[in-house]
């Protein structure tokens, strides 16, 4: 008898868990996992407390999500993107974006189908595709600009391509895909009749003049896109694991069928609080962006005296740094050096690549800046040591 199943044979411990353990062991400032070290807004937490004590939200929520959260998701999509979403049939609340992507893959992709994955990819995408008995087809972004080669993307489409997994703003590169790039992807998906699963969890984490464009808003795309997002990033509430998928009801039907038997329903009181949070005024979202813009400035200030090279991200709370000037070795070796000798943890991005393309990311590591300002200032003091 083989234990565990072949399906999960290639799944190792996630890099986030591995690095958290190491960072703790060496008392390093942890810029690894994208986990804020500050709290969710007090009024949002207050809504959860109220819901917990109201006496009516402590049992199963409706499977597809509470009416209030589904309406809030639809209203948010109308307010920010001018999208017309049916709260009843076009929204499913999931256990984070992680379950959103899994339920979308399980509900929309058949065994044997191909799914195009843009590298570097969020680490759960490929296991999701494998668990659906489908096949990932990899197309890399090329550093230092982290852009697609149009010919490589075109060549990845085949008669078996069923879906393309997109992530914008993009973890870990910090890219926000432009209208031109998204139009090129959209045209290929329309030509080959492919569904897009668009992971937009960093939709509100934008810098400078960057604008987030949901691919569902491009001509001909609404009927072939499911959009996934989450409360984790926008409300510093990664521990709540409340996410959602929205789109055309015909596509959402597949996602809903899978979701019923993956989790059935999501934490009920948290849905009340997230419904409230999504409806916060524009000033909340503006202050949120200003807070992160200041954190980005603290990190780039630290990087400027470190010898690490970087491209300023347009979105997300990640920066990819190139360490070639200060260290020779693989990203994993650099990560060990940074944690043990310098006292700062980062994420080596090898886990975001297939074997065939992992060489592309040689010389790079990911730093996350969803951290207290004091932590980011201390990082500067430590990173200076890289130069010596
Ligand atoms: N997608 C991307 C691109 C992410 O970076 C993350 C995690 N931070 C997720 C999905 C998972 O989101 P959640 O915690 O809501 O499951
Ligand atoms: N999304 C976060 C990151 O990329 C963490 C996710 C996780 O720990 N699975 O760092």
TrEMBL record:
Keyword Isomerase (UniProt): no
Keywords, ordered alphabetically: Aminotransferase, Pyridoxal phosphate, Transferase
MF annotations from Gene Ontology: kynurenine-oxoglutarate transaminase activity; pyridoxal phosphate binding
Domain of life: Bacteria
Domain Aminotransferase class I/classII large intervals: 28-383
Pfam families for the chain: Aminotran_1_2
Family matches, as InterPro entries: Aminotransferase_I/II_large, Kynurenine-oxoglutarate_AT, PyrdxlP-dep_Trfase, PyrdxlP-dep_Trfase_major, PyrdxlP-dep_Trfase_small
Cofactor field: pyridoxal 5'-phosphate
GO cellular component: cytoplasm
PANTHER family (alphabetical): FI04487P
Family indicated by similarity: Belongs to the class-I pyridoxal-phosphate-dependent aminotransferase family.
Name of the featured protein: Aminotransferase class I/II-fold pyridoxal phosphate-dependent enzyme
């Amino acid at each position: 008898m083989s234990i565990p199943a072949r399906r999960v044979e290639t799944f190792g411990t996630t890099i986030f868990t591995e690095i958290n353990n190491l960072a703790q062991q060496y008392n390093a400032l942890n810029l690894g996992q994208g986990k804020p070290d500050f709290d969710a807004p007090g009024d949002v937490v207050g809504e959860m407390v109220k819901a917990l004590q109201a006496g009516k939200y402590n049992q199963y929520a409706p499977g597809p999500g509470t009416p209030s959260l589904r309406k809030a998701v639809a209203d948010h999509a109308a307010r920010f993107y001018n999208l017309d979403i049916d709260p009843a049939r076009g929204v499913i609340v999931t256990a984070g974006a992680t379950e959103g992507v899994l339920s979308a893959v399980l509900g929309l992709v058949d065994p044997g189908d191909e799914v195009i994955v843009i590298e570097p990819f969020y680490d759960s995408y490929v296991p999701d595709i494998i668990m659906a008995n489908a096949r990932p087809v990899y197309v890399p972004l090329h550093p230092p600009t982290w852009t697609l080669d149009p010919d490589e993307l075109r060549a990845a489409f085949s008669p078996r391509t069923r879906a393309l997994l997109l992530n914008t703003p993009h973890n870990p590169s910090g890219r926000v895909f432009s209208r031109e790039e998204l139009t090129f992807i959209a045209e290929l998906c329309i030509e080959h009749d492919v569904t897009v699963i668009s992971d937009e969890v960093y939709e509100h984490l934008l810098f400078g003049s960057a604008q987030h464009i949901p691919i569902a808003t491009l001509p001909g795309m609404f009927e072939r896109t499911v959009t996934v997002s989450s409360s984790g990033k926008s409300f510093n509430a990664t521990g709540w694991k409340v996410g959602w998928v929205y789109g055309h009801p015909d596509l959402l039907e597949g996602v809903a069928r899978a979701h019923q038997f993956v989790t059935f329903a999501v934490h009920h009181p948290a849905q009340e609080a997230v419904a409230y949070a999504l409806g916060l005024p524009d000033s909340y979202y503006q202050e949120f962006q200003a807070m992160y813009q200041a954190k980005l400035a603290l990190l780039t200030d630290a990087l400027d005296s470190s010898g690490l090279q970087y491209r300023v991200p347009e979105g997300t709370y990640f920066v990819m740094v190139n360490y070639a000037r200060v260290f020779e070795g693989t990203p994993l070796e650099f990560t060990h050096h940074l944690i043990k000798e310098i006292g700062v943890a980062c994420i080596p991005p090898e886990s975001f690549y297939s074997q065939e393309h992992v060489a592309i990311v040689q010389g790079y590591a990911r730093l996350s800046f969803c951290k207290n300002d004091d932590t980011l200032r201390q990082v500067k003091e430590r990173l200076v040591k890289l130069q010596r």
